[in-house]
Amino acid sequence: MAGNASEYIQHHLQNLTYGLHPEYGLKFAENAAEAKAMGFWAIHVDTIGWSVVLGGLFLFLFRKAAKSMTQGVPGGLQNFVEIMVEFVDKSVKETFHGRSQLIAPLSLTIFCWVFLMNLMDLVPVDWLPALFGAMGVHYMKVVPTTDVNATMGMSISVFLMIIFYSIKIKGVSGFTKELTLQPFNNKLMIPFNLLLEGVGLLAKPVSLGLRLFGNLYAGELIFILIALLPFWIQWALSVPWAIFHILIITLQAFIFMMLTIVYLSMAHEDH
User: Fold this and answer.
1) pLDDT tens digits in sequence order for the chain, 271 residues long
2) Which residue among 31, 211, 238, 265 is the active-site one?
3) For every residue of the chain, which 3-state class applies, written as one string?
4) Active-site residue 207, yes or no?
5) Is 211 a catalytic residue?
6) What transmembrane ranges does the database entry give (predicted)?
7) pTM, whole model, 2 decimals?
8) Residue 149 known to be catalytic
């Protein structure tokens, strides 16, 4: 039983991986060992696929709401979109102190996209893997944010924007001084300042990506463990956990969005 449970958990935590195997060439990995042998450049097809599908769903729904917007009594979709836009716009106005036409659309995209990816965690753990298994696909992880590659990819993108706007607003000289003359404005303290500020700068994308990954990965693992229990216990535990997990899903999307706004606001501050 322990062996079966272990195999069940490993199977559900394994991504559909495609890459160059040193012995077999380009192929889909049939187990975790083959996926590991493919190395750094292996592609998690399920993570990329579901991310694109959910991103496309976000664009489709918001575009549909924009095209069908009316001055009269709004429909359900229009109400939802207006609430989301007003919520994000208010968050940006309260937190971002610079001027940018990019921050509000970026924040809206981040919140909605991350929320949709997190929401996939509420789909029963066996449904979609079983459906794809019937079509010959042996592995299928449907929650992109439980893949550290996805969360770190998004956080690194935010990090590159932080660097870009820091240099754009402050100039290369200003950005360099920010890293070398803070918190101690003394040339003798430059190495210490650079170490301190450099660690603080690099900690932003790491904490941003790992926080989202850790919370969603833990949530997915709990759902998998619940699925191993007898059927009547599954429902007794999975429903309360799913209700509680809705809060985690929403909160993690909100935190990712707010930290992005805060970091970009700091990048726009010119001391």
Assistant:
1) 445 888 999 999 999 999 999 999 999 999 889 999 998 889 999 999 999 999 999 999 999 998 888 777 777 888 999 999 999 999 999 999 878 889 999 999 999 999 999 999 999 999 999 999 999 998 999 999 999 999 999 999 999 999 999 999 999 999 999 889 888 888 888 899 999 999 999 999 999 999 999 999 999 999 999 999 988 888 889 999 999 999 999 999 999 999 999 999 999 886 5
2) 211
3) CHHHHHHHHHHHHCCCEEEEECCCEEEECCCHHHHHHCCCCCEEHHHHHHHHHHHHHHHHHHHHHHHCCCCCCCCHHHHHHHHHHHHHHHHHHHHCCCCCCCHHHHHHHHHHHHHHHHHHHHCCCCHHHHHHHHCCCCCCCCCHHHCHHHHHHHHHHHHHHHHHHHHHHHHHHHHHHHHHCCCCCCHHHHHHHHHHHHHHHHHHHHHHHHHHHHHHHHHHHHHHHHHCCCHHHHHHHHHHHHHHHHHHHHHHHHHHHHHHHHHHHHHHCCC
4) yes
5) yes
6) 41-62, 102-120, 148-167, 212-233, 239-264
7) 0.93
8) no
